[in-house]
């Protein structure tokens, strides 16, 4: 192993780690930037995404929790990972629409603290609901072997190592995670920057009242933005599930890094969320390699330093109103 | 309370010089508040754990009573910040857990004297609050919440692994030996005679003194011009700045005072359990204190304590209920009721935030006002009727 390949492995691992943060942070960021809504339940959407992914992709035995007691010995449709990648975002998109319509909308005019409190409460409710249904133990979420295998078509292999130049063998699934993230984030970016829908959304971010005065119904773009943010969290749950443990506390555990990613990147900026996620991913990967004891501390230290020296975030250009 | 004291003449006209009216005048005084707190603290463990019928229904026990007071101190301090200054910190676990660790480490390496433990734990929390407050208060609103959260998480992960030689890492700080108070009284032992029947253990009395002290100090702060400034900042920070107040300094002081309360509570927690779990630094612990405070009623003196009582009661007693039945019958409504305790608490919390932002205390207050109004109306009717009879 040369130094170069070590560095490249750290880079790739960092990108993969960062990819999950990016998916969550882009969603959080567009919701926070456009709707001015602080969503502490974003981790809960990730949790829903992970379990929904597990449900669609595999069929896992249940031993704990109420579902097992009620006689469900296993859980899942077992129709493959690709199906999960399609259906779960749609499902979580729907969850996001409901959440915007029946929860967030009632809180737009209330103080930030109330938004934090109610979504934090919702996060507890969702987490405990999953704990009641599935038990607090971890469920196995195996990495998919192949995706898109229909009938005689064997499908694309996505698991196992792949030989890369210089680096040598690298887990293929991690590359897929990076790729899926890149594509989705690019799509959201194009949607916000280059479509009429995005134009309304960006105008609403600047001055929602003016947009309304111009006769544009702003509530519809808002609900869609919320849904897209939620769907991205769902995707993060699906692709991140096989890389981490799956239990009811993953939502609250990932929320804090996701929020920090948004804040250090700059609220409302998609590029900022990407940069923030990559910075976090690379830091974590580098510390895991060189100083494992400090791997988690580093993330928070970086966040603190960035926020204190550049309060608006790395790529945030908006004047910060305290 | 203070709004009512502002126009006592109107109040007098309503309720007159009756016993009730005299109580209305007395209830705002510091002496009354502290005195009643002391009496309630004294009878609470008896009612909760030992009184004949009541404790049978409540199913309480002594150590839970102690725990409620400890968290109560924490909540009173937290409310100084959230309810009165309007700053939502998601990082108070750093002060609570930090003080708990500091007290435990001092007990292991220096002295197990409870006073020494509380003083060192609190000092540590104050210093930490000073530094973290200085850094986090540079940003307002949600950024303040997120910054405090980030710093607190940093301490959690520091305690988890780089500082494991001090904190014993994932296993938590075990083997804390709490010495005797003033060298003679073992805190775990029961108090003899009547005191024992009421208070139970010396530990409860020790914690109780701190609790009453915390109430007195918080009450004094909040009803002083200093506390008035806190409220001014909550209502409108910009305006407070414009009238020439140094908002930054007051916010920092509110943060430090609140950290000190958390520090006292955290140190007492170590004395109570002789153990510090790593969990005590995790951000869900900060979340718990937020839930307790808001549930009880942020922005009131005793609401948060009520919230603490409710939360810990549900966590420790309701969670052991096997089946929820209709009272006095055997008809089971929900099986394994206790299993759902946290879910239930989350739902109640969401409803409270949504519908009654001033919490349970706000509900009680409204009921009280309703009763006062009803009472005074009834008295007036009585008076007019007697007048009519005279004519």
Task: Give an account of the 3D structure.
The complex is a heterodimer of chains A (322) and B (391). With 322 residues, chain A is mainly alpha-helical. Chain A has a single domain, classed as ABC transporter involved in vitamin B12 uptake, BtuC, CATH 1.10.3470. Chain A has twelve helices and six strands. In chain A, the strands form three sheets. In chain A, strands 1-2 form a two-stranded antiparallel ribbon. Chain A has a two-stranded antiparallel sheet with strand order 3-4. Chain A has a two-stranded antiparallel sheet with strand order 5-6. In chain A, helix 2 (42-57) crosses helix 9 (219-240) and helix 10 (250-265) packs parallel to helix 12 (295-309). The termini of chain A are far apart. The model of chain A has no long low-confidence stretch (mean pLDDT 84). Chain B is mainly α and 391 residues long. Chain B has one domain. Chain B is 72% helix and 2% strand. Chain B has helices spanning 2-6, 8-15, 19-26, 30-50, 52-58, 62-84, 93-109, 114-136, 141-160, 164-167, 193-199, 202-222, 225-235, 237-242, 247-273, 283-296, 303-316, 341-355, 359-390; strands at residues 323-325, 332-335. Chain B has a two-stranded antiparallel ribbon with strand order 1-2. Chain B is globular, with a radius of gyration of 23 Å. The relative contact order of chain B is 0.15. The chains are: A mainly alpha (322), B mainly alpha (391). At the A-B interface, helix 5, helix 10 and helix 12 of A face helix 9, helix 16 and helix 18 of B.
Q: What are the salient characteristics of this protein?
A:
A: 322 residues, mainly alpha, ABC transporter involved in vitamin B12 uptake, BtuC, two-stranded antiparallel ribbon, 6 strands, 66% helix, 5% strand, globular, B: 391 residues, two-stranded antiparallel sheet, amino-acid transport (chain A), membrane (chain A), cell membrane (chain A)
């Amino acid at each position: 192993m040369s130094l170069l390949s070590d560095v490249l492995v750290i880079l790739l691992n960092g990108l993969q780690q960062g990819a999950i943060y990016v998916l969550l942070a882009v969603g959080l960021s567009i919701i926070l930037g456009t709707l001015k809504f602080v969503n502490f339940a974003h981790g809960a959407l990730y949790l829903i995404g992970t379990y929904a992914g597990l449900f669609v992709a595999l069929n896992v035995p249940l031993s704990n929790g109420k579902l097992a007691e009620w006689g469900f010995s296993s859980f899942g449709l077992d129709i493959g990972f690709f199906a999960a990648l399609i259906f779960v975002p749609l499902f979580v998109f729907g969850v996001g629409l409901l959440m915007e319509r029946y929860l967030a909308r009632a809180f737009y005019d209330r103080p930030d603290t109330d938004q934090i409190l109610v979504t934090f409460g919702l996060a507890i409710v969702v987490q405990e609901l999953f704990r009641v249904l599935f038990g607090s133990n971890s469920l196995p979420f195996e990495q998919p072997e192949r995706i898109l295998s229909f009938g005689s078509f064997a499908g694309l292999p996505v698991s196992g190592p792949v030989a890369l130049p210089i680096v040598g063998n690298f887990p293929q699934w991690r590359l897929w995670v990076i790729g899926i993230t890149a594509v989705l984030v690019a799509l959201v970016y194009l949607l916000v920057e280059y479509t009429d829908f995005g134009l309304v959304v960006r105008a609403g971010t600047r001055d929602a009242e003016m947009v309304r005065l111009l006769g544009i119904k702003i509530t519809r773009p808002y609900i869609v933005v919320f849904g897209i943010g939620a769907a991205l969290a769902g995707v993060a749950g699906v692709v991140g599930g096989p890389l981490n443990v799956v239990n009811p506390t993953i939502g609250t555990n990932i929320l804090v890094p996701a929020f920090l990613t948004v804040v250090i990147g700059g609220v409302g900026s998609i590029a900022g969320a990407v940069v923030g996620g990559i910075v976090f991913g690379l830091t974590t990967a580098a510390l895991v390699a060189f100083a494992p004891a400090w791997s988690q501390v580093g993330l928070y230290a970086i966040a603190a330093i960035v926020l204190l020296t550049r309060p608006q975030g790395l790529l945030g250009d908006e004047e910060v109103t305290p | 309370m203070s709004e009512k004291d502002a126009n006592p003449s109107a109040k007098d006209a309503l309720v007159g010089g009756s016993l009730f009216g005299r109580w209305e005048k007395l209830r705002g005084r510091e002496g009354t508040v502290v005195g009643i707190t002391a009496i309630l603290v004294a009878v609470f463990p008896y009612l909760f754990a030992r009184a004949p019928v009541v404790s049978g229904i409540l199913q309480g026990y002594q150590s839970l009573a102690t725990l409620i007071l400890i968290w109560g101190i924490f909540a009173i301090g937290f409310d100084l910040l959230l309810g009165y200054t309007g700053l939502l910190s998601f990082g108070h676990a750093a002060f609570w857990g930090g003080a708990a660790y500091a007290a435990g480490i001092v007990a292991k390496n220096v002295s197990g004297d409870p006073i020494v433990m509380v003083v060192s734990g609190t000092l540590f929390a104050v210093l930490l609050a000073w530094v973290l407050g200085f850094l986090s208060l540079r940003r307002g609103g949600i950024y303040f919440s997120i910054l405090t959260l980030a710093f607190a998480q940093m301490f959690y992960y520091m305690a988890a692994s780089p500082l494991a030689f001090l904190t014993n890492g994932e296993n938590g700080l075990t083997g804390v030996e709490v010495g005797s108070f003033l060298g003679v009284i073992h805190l775990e032992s029961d108090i003899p005679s009547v005191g024992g029947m009421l208070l139970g253990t010396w530990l409860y009395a020790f914690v109780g003194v701190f609790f009453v002290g915390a109430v007195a100090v918080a009450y004094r702060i909040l009803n002083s011009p200093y506390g008035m400034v806190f409220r001014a900042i909550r209502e409108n920070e910009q305006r407070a700045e414009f009238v020439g107040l140094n908002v930054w300094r007051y916010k920092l002081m509110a943060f430090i005072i609140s950290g000190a309360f958390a520090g006292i509570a955290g140190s007492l927690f170590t004395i109570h359990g002789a153990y510090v779990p790593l969990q005590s630094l995790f951000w869900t612990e900060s979340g718990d204190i937020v839930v307790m405070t808001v549930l009880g009623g942020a922005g009131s003196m005793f609401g948060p304590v009520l919230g603490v009582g409710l939360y810990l009661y549900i966590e420790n007693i309701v969670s052991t209920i096997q089946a929820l039945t209709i009272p006095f019958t055997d008809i089971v409504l929900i099986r394994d009721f206790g299993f759902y305790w946290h879910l239930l608490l989350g739902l109640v919390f969401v409803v409270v935030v949504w519908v009654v932002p001033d919490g349970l205390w706000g509900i009680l207050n409204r009921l009280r006002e309703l009763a006062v109004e009803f009472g005074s109306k009834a008295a007036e009717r009585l008076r007019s009727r007697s007048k009519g009879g005279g004519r």
